[in-house]
Design brief:
There is one protein chain. This protein is of the alpha/beta class. The protein folds into 3 domains: 37 residues; 118 residues, Enolase-like, domain 1; 222 residues, Enolase-like C-terminal domain (TIM Barrel). The protein contains 14 helices and 15 strands. The strands form 4 sheets. The chain has an 8-stranded parallel beta sheet. Strands 1-2-3 form a 3-stranded antiparallel beta sheet, with helices on both faces. Strands 12-15 form a two-stranded antiparallel sheet. Strand 6, helix 9 and strand 7 form a beta-alpha-beta unit. It is globular, with a radius of gyration of 21 Å. 50% of the residues are buried. The N terminus is likely disordered. The structure holds magnesium ion. The site of magnesium ion has 6 residues, from loops.
Length: 385
């Protein structure tokens, strides 16, 4: 693409995406992109496997673990580096091997214009079905790169107000009362607690927390309740305990039971396992009150922001969740957090070997920074030249 055409493209891109202060941003992006784009430059993808060490054994209704495999990605374009990440909790079926196999088939060098985000993502989607974490690692790196090329963070390019980020919750896994009390103490800086239920100790978990804390709680049952009458009884009990919402109370296949539960529940019922990507939002609109969007489920920032807008247009509530991830994927998700009611972006705080600095939590709220792209800096060099 000729430089003149490229400038025209980037102007159109910025104009299409912006809703606030357009003239200043377009002028800024033209200046930066015309300076940083070089004729003949190509996109180069690199990736490296990494293993996250969890601070505590993490127990859900169906599993427990002490590590999470991730693959870190980098897309280089004319000396500018964008970073991405795939996180693969075992229950979702992706692994170090599957992600590296997928990424080894991604040939980004055929693209000379990094701003053709829709085309590049359509290409990575076409390589194989599924592989959402692997696809997210390309999508996030591409967003980081293009944000850096125009010198803007993505929340700004999406026209979102950084002051409207939600409080983020701190997750407390299923554990003994002593450990639960210790985790509540660790969550001192957070305004909202997220509690995992569904392992048969639900009331004990909530009562243990309520014995030491009055903070609002959201609960995630991870499909753990199998009977709708029991589920409604539990939700009515939870409603007396200052609970905000209930996430995935029953197995996702039990759609009629969940729709009944949502109609009768005093608390919002949020879909997590039941909603993966854009196509699922319409399917769950009459079954749940809202959806939990995660970059690793839907394939990245491009799909996530579309899902958030679609759910809001359908009158559904939106929460933004995460896996155990470094500050790379967490900061990427945080870019769209002003669009959502609730955030659960604590995955980077649950690990002891985060290799990026990124968004922070201040007074319990996601705090976006002004760094371009997804707002991160590497703490250690993961990619050697
Ligand atoms: Mg969940």
């Amino acid at each position: 693409m000729k430089k003149r055409d490229f400038v025209k493209y980037s102007t159109l891109l910025a104009g299409a995406m912006m809703t606030g202060s357009p003239s200043a941003v377009i002028s800024e992006s033209m200046k930066k992109s015309s300076r940083s784009v070089r004729k003949g430059a190509k996109l180069n993808l690199r990736f490296v496997p990494y293993t996250l060490q969890l601070k505590h054994v993490f127990t859900l209704a169906t599993s427990s673990r002490t590590t999470t495999p991730v693959v870190l990605t980098e897309i280089e374009y004319d000396g500018v580096h964008g970073y991405g990440e795939a996180s693969m909790p075992p229950y979702l079926g992706e692994s170090h091997e599957s992600v590296q196999k997928f990424l080894s088939q991604v040939n980004l060098s055929q693209f000379t214009d990094p701003f053709l985000i829709e085309d590049i993502i359509a290409y990575t989607d076409s390589i194989a079905p599924g592989n959402y974490a692997a696809k997210a690692s390309v999508d996030i790196a591409l967003h980081d790169l293009t944000g850096k090329l125009v010198g803007m963070p993505w929340f700004r390019l999406w026209g979102l107000d950084p002051l409207k980020t939600p409080a983020t919750s701190f997750t407390i896994g299923i554990d003994t009362p002593d450990v639960v009390r210790q985790k509540v103490a660790e969550a001192e800086l957070y305004r909202v607690l997220k509690v995992k239920l569904g392992a048969g100790t639900d009331k004990e978990m909530i009562e243990t927390i309520r014995s030491v804390s009055d903070k609002p709680i959201c609960v995630d049952v991870n499909q753990g309740w199998k009977d709708r009458n029991f589920a409604l009884e539990m939700i009515n009990w939870l409603n007396e305990k200052k609970i905000i919402f209930v996430e995935q109370p029953m197995p996702k296949e039990m759609t009629d039971d969940i729709a009944w539960l949502t109609r009768n529940s005093p608390l919002p019922i949020i879909a997590d396992e039941a909603v993966q990507n854009i196509g699922d939002v319409l399917k769950v609109r009459d079954i749940y009150s809202g959806i939990n969007i995660k970059l690793m489920k839907c394939g990245g920032m491009n799909a996530a922001v579309k899902m958030a807008h679609m759910a809001r247009a359908l009158g559904m509530k939106v929460m933004l969740g995460c896996m155990t991830e470094t500050s790379c994927a967490i900061s990427a998700a945080a870019q769209l957090s002003p669009l959502v009611e609730w955030a659960d972006l604590d995955g980077n705080l649950l690990i002891s070997n985060d290799c990026y600095d990124g968004v922070t939590i201040t007074d319990g709220k996601v705090t976006l920074n002004v760094k371009p792209g997804i707002g991160i800096s590497p703490k250690i060099k993961m990619f050697t030249d």
